[in-house]
Amino acid sequence: MKKLWRSAATTAFALGVAAIFGPAPAKADTPQYGDELRLVVGSNIPSFDAHIESTFGMIHPIRPFYSVLIRVNPDNPSSPTDFVCDVCEGTVPKATDGGTKFTFKIRKDIKFHDGTPLTAHDVKATFDKIVFPPEGIASNRVAYFRAVESITTPDDYTVVFKLKTPTGTFLPSVAMPFNFIYAKKDLDTHGYTWHQKNVNGTGAFKFAEYVPGSHVRGEKYEGFHHKGMPYLDGFTAIAAPKMSVRLQAIRGGQADIEFRGFPPKARDDLVKALGNDITVQESDWNCVLIVTPNHEVKPMDDPRVRRALSLAIDRKGGSQYLSKIAIVKTVGGIVFPGHPLAATEAELSQLAGYGNDIEANRAEAKRLLKEAGHENLKVTLHNRGVDQPYKVVGTWLIDQWKKIGVQADQWVQPSTPFYATLRSKKDFTISLDFNCQSIINPIADISKYLPGAGANYAYFQDEQLVKWYDELLAEGDEGKQREIIRKYEKRVLDDLASQFITLWWYKINPYRSYVKGWKIAPSHYLNQALDNIWIDQTEKKRQLGG
Amino acid sequence: MYGYIVKRLLMLLPTLLGAAILVFLLLRLVPGDICLIKFGGEGAYADPEQIKQCQERLGLTQPIYIQFVEYIGGYLTFDLGTSMWTGRAVGHEIAIRFELSLQIAIMATLTSIIIAIPLGVISAAKQNTAVDYFVRGFSIAGIAMPSFWLGILIILGLLIGTQEFLGRPWMPPIHYKPIWEDPIHNISQLIWPALATGYRYSAVATRMTRSAMLEVLGEDYVRTARAKGLVESVIINKHALKNAMLPVVTIIGMEFAFLMGGLVVTEQVFNLNGIGKLFVESVTQSDFTLTQALVMLVVTIFIVMNFIVDVLYAWLDPRIRYS
Amino acid sequence: MSSIDATPETNTGFRRTTVWDHISRLIRRQPLGTGGAIVIIMMLFMALFADVIAPFDPEANSFEYMLVPPSWEFLMGTDQFGRDLFSRIIYGARTALFVGFACAIVGAFGGLVLGVASAYFGGWFDLIMQRIIDVFMAFPLIIMALAIVSIFGTGTDKVIIAITIPFVPRCARVVRSSALAVREMPYVDAARSIGYGHMRIIMKHIAPNVLAPFLIMLTAFLGEAILLEASLSYLGLGVQEPTPAWGLMLQGGAEEYAESAPWVPIWPGLAITIAVFGFNLFGDAVRDILDPKLRTR
């Protein structure tokens, strides 16, 4: 069984698609109505306002209450480009006016949970809040919409986005699951902060109850605009910050599903204990752990030292072994593996630290350290106080570095001081950092490695990288984009070793097999509307009893 | 007596004020601020302008003495402020968790009394016998064993045991429902953490019962009773136990105060949405307002319990009042 | 110790009392305390000779041996990184004892100095000191430690600071009350009237007399420090990977894979329990011996 899984998983990875394992092909089943879904969420809710938040701890319990303008196709969520309309009508519009104008027709049959009909004005008010937040009002995704010049409503059911320049990043940004559509009426009468604590959406479920720190409950919205849905009578999202509790809850019948992800060892344990009562879906994950050396602190100013530390990492071995206990697996470059813009295996193997001969890499690393005069290097790896995958990968990295004679220990901080340290420029030598996005949007995503960008904590300057990135933004042809990205990638990971990649995350969702209809996406932020999920109630009764 | 109570009450004030100052200063030393994580946490692109606005909104840009005055002023008017993380009223955030913590504290205290008093009495009555050594060993083990480890073992035992004997694994519920809403759900969730912590606290109480009993058993009137030829069990139950109870009640009272705020670790194991878990969360998220309020709550409970115990003693033993 | 020397019962006069006589008497009077001492000696032995005893490097990953059950090769099995648990338990004793002794000694010494000074100088100094101690004592230990950890961050050295700070006032309170009793003694007055300096009076007359409560607090702190360190590490706010520490070994993978690899959480928990058990037994015995008033307890 285990063996079969591994080979199936590898095949799935090779094809770059998601994989489903488990009993009974889902297609043959007809959805059943009724019952409630119990999901466990490994984080708590900062606020309900998705426009200012960026955590799955908010998305998982709150997303089902809202609709968005366009979303990833719930039946094909593994595709990074397959978007479908949610509140818009028909198919997702193509750009006109040389790529600078997008015209969305809005459906006329949508009502908010309080009865207010949804119109284009609500969509405009929502995106105005996201793109052009008024003075003193927070918005977390202004940067994604820099290209937007204006948002207008020619009539009650049409919204037009006018762009300053054509850009391929616009549609993926609109499709982000954080762009909840709010009612203009609510924004006008209650103000721009009302949605932090109150819910009024057009999603498949109506807000029923929130007990901070404990759970959120939603009830079926009969007036939902996707006909026939949702199937569930409701859902309860239970907060459980510890992974062991989430696992035990699924095993012990207190929860049905968890949408973030578990390591393979946890999956194997669940399947071993419960057999066919567990279904597993797996996918590559648009999150990556990055080692960020601080170029302003010695000895990380020396490219030989940085390169040595990257060469010491056995990525292939890690992919094979570390991946059993951590939610990371896939060897990749700076672009989401499996995306057309990502490096192929042959291209990757040309980069420092990706070659097949790990012993040769490590010998080279030792030579570099010696040359740099740091034979007995001691470093402190700065890390975030989150187990999966940060601390697990950190522990592994320290062991990898030990193999080239580097003595490392780990300095862990809770999230808030962790970021404060990263931003301080001087207080850390080398740190783990990550890049985790919802919609796969490589050109936007790789700005993480751009020197001088707000989220680049390596603190270095390089005009060449900036130049290439500007060229990339202006380039419309995918083949040319790919070429530029390869040069950019080689400079980041190899020539400069300014930052380097450990492993990409790998998403594994084992869940109770009576939960049907959900499909895994390459991000834990995506496909969380819960409208197409249903529960096989006879099967549930068989599994959990009475 | 009233004079003594008033005097003791007045002495509480500097302690409370001192605690307020201490926690305020400690938190101001914590590096980083909540706005960074709110806007730069998981999304990669944080706008410095947004962060600055957030800091202004939360009052973090004000001079420290103004922050302090506002904080103390708020407490004097029973306004605990709003959580920096969730924007909800701190009082509300705490109230939600209080019920659960209170119920566990009561259940654990009951567990502890049921175990401690008989064991302590037997141990004292049979001092320096095998029984005594066993009870002492048992109670020191209770103090030595981390409650969270006992909790881990309980969950492990439940999952494996139920799968073995009932055919399907069972885990206690992981979200709280009040006892009047769903008593079965409620008890089946809370009984385990109550046992895990109850064992530890019973150990403390057992030791206290034993030593208090020993002291009383050495008193003259017990010797007299023995000389009169009373049966040992009558002596213990009728005379000694009653007099030995005061220190035992005291220690149970103090334990209760600790249970209200001290279940920081055990609540993690059982995913309990109580005061302790809230405290860990607020500390790790640098939610100053919430952390301050929680610390003050725990400190106040502790000080008030202390006060009650002191007054009780003074009432029973008039010499204390005049010393 | 003086109270033991004073008991004449085994001094038969036929031979001089040997060290062994003392020890055997101690064992008979304090069987539980002796048990505690044995545990402590074993731990010290483990900590000192960890390099010799431990069969494997406690930090080396070897994923081929991931979560192997206990066997002759791996006496206690391995954890999720394929690290030998037996070796980690042995080295963990080093971490536990280091934290335990560092916190207990520094905390108790700090308390000794503050307590004696407070009692000796009295007046305003004492009053203010006592109010400050009141404030510190009103914080539950773990709450205080967590607050301090959030300032200084995690790691072995920071954990020691976080645990030591709340220990100081606890010891100071106890020492002060003993020192107060001594301060009023005629010989202290006499020394003062001769014109001895404060330092000399404190060192010669007061300090020796508060040694008993000082030692009692110190031994009591040992077990408490080990428990606190385990709690902090379990919360992820204490000692960090890959350093072997028992509380840390109970966290993360130990719980996540507990149902299929129960040995991972069982050994470290047992180690903590036995260690603290030993220190508590020993501490009780020390209290019995040093504090005759509490003898019967």
Tell me what the structure shows.
Chain A is built from 17 helices and 19 strands. Chain A has 546 residues and is of the alpha+beta class. In chain A, a hairpin with a 2-residue loop joins β6 (148-155) and β7. In chain A, 56% of the residues are buried. Residues 1-17 and 23-27 of chain A have low confidence and may be disordered. By secondary structure, chain B is mainly α. The longest helix of chain B is centred in the first third of the chain and has 36 residues, at 90-125. The radius of gyration of chain B is 24 Å and the shape is flat. Chain B starts with a helix and ends with a helix. Chain C is mostly helical and 297 residues long. Chain C has 14 helices and no strands. Chain C starts with a helix and ends in a 7-residue tail after the last helix. Mean pLDDT of chain C is 84; it is low at 1-13. Chains A and B meet through β10, α6 and α13 of A and α2, α3, α5, α7 and α12 of B.
Give a brief rundown of this model.
Chain B is an all-alpha fold. Chain B is built from 14 helices and no strands. In chain B, helix 5 (90-125) crosses helix 8 (183-217), helix 10 (232-262) runs antiparallel to helix 13 (288-316) and helix 12 (275-284) packs across helix 13 (288-316).
Largest interface: A-B, 61 and 55 residues
What are the segments of chain A in which pLDDT stays under 50 over at least 5 consecutive residues?
A: 1-17, 23-27
CATH homologous superfamily assignment of the largest domain in chain B = MetI-like
Mean model confidence by pLDDT of chain B: 83
Assigned CATH class of the largest domain in chain B:
Mainly Alpha
Broad structural category of chain B: mainly alpha
Number of domains of chain B: 2
Count of individual helical segments of chain A: 17
Taken as a percent bin, the fraction of beta residues of chain A is 15-25%
Q: How does the helix and strand content of chain A classify structurally?
A: alpha+beta
Can you tell me the overall shape of chain A?
A: globular
Q: What is the subunit organization of this protein?
A: heterotrimer
Low-confidence stretches of chain B: none
Question: What is the rounded Rg of chain B?
Answer: 24 Å
Helix content of chain B: over 70%
Indicate the percent of residues in helices of chain A. 25-40%
Terminal-residue CA separation of chain B: 13 Å
